[in-house]
Structure formats: structure tokens, C-alpha cells
Design goal:
With 143 residues, the protein is mainly α. The protein folds into 3 domains: 27 residues, no CATH class; 75 residues, no CATH class; 32 residues, no CATH class. Strands 1-2 form a two-stranded antiparallel ribbon. The longest helix has 18 residues. The N terminus and C terminus are likely disordered.
């Protein structure tokens, strides 16, 4: 049986919030304290794949609060509106810092201008073996 002071301290809202913050908000999960950090990692990873995917999907009114492929493609544009849309998941941060840009159209060109190898292995080795560069550079899209 727990002592009176232990029972009081674990029921304190301040104590619970402090414990939750210190454990990455895993405390509310009970017997599985690693579940929430694992879910955050999984959802964040999947969202990163989604926004970088070569999909022409829009999220309608949700694009105001969640990043989408359309939102993030403007982050990778070559010329038009460079240095915008840094948020990985919540565009409100770009609105706060004045870097939000999301027109109805898609960027004409995005990617890098430097020549890169065409195959995945070449792209993975290029930073350590720069001589593998090929004439293939970036992706062009028409509006």
C-alpha cells in the first residue's frame, strides 16, 4: 500500500504534466511507455515520405493546417519563391515567420541544378565519390 504522500504526489496535475513532459508524453499510455514516442516517430516518418512523394495531391481546407505534397514542392522549387515552406507538418509555423506560400498552381521546376547520377546507387555514393556525376539534373514539371 502506497503512503499518503506518494498517492497525493502522483495525482497532482503539476506532477503529471511534469512527468509527461519529461518522458515525451509517454506517461498516459500506462504499461507501454514507449508507445507514444514510437507512434510519433512512425507517423512523422510516413508524413515525410508523403510530402516528398511525386504526387499531385491537395488536402483541400486541411492544407491550411497540415503540409501536403503541394505545400512542400514549393520548398524545393529552383527559382520561383525560393526559401519558403520550411514546416514539415504544420504550416502555421511558416505563417508565423512569413515563409508560407501555397498558390493553386504547382512549381514549374524543382530539385537541384547540379548534375547527379541517374541511378539510386550513384546518388548514394556521389557525396563520397563526386566523380560519379551524370548529366541528369532535377525534375521539370509544367504548370
Amino acid at each position: 500500500m502506497a503512503s499518503f504522500s506518494t498517492a497525493i504526489s502522483t495525482r497532482s496535475p503539476f506532477r503529471r504534466l511534469t512527468l509527461a513532459a519529461a518522458t515525451g508524453f509517454a506517461a498516459p499510455v500506462g504499461d507501454h511507455p514507449t508507445l507514444i514516442p514510437a507512434l510519433v516517430l512512425f507517423v512523422g516518418s510516413m508524413w515525410s515520405f508523403f510530402i516528398h512523394a511525386n504526387l499531385r495531391w491537395r488536402l483541400g481546407p486541411f492544407e491550411e493546417v497540415l503540409s501536403s505534397p503541394a505545400f512542400h514542392h514549393w520548398h524545393h522549387t529552383r527559382e520561383d519563391h525560393k526559401d519558403h515552406n520550411y514546416a514539415a507538418m504544420l504550416p502555421v509555423m511558416d505563417r508565423i515567420f512569413g515563409t508560407f506560400y501555397l498558390p493553386k498552381k504547382w512549381p514549374a521546376d524543382y530539385g537541384i541544378t547540379a548534375p547527379m547520377p541517374a541511378d539510386l546507387l550513384g546518388q548514394m555514393l556521389e557525396p563520397v565519390l563526386p566523380g560519379l556525376k551524370a548529366p541528369d539534373a532535377g525534375i521539370s514539371r509544367s504548370t
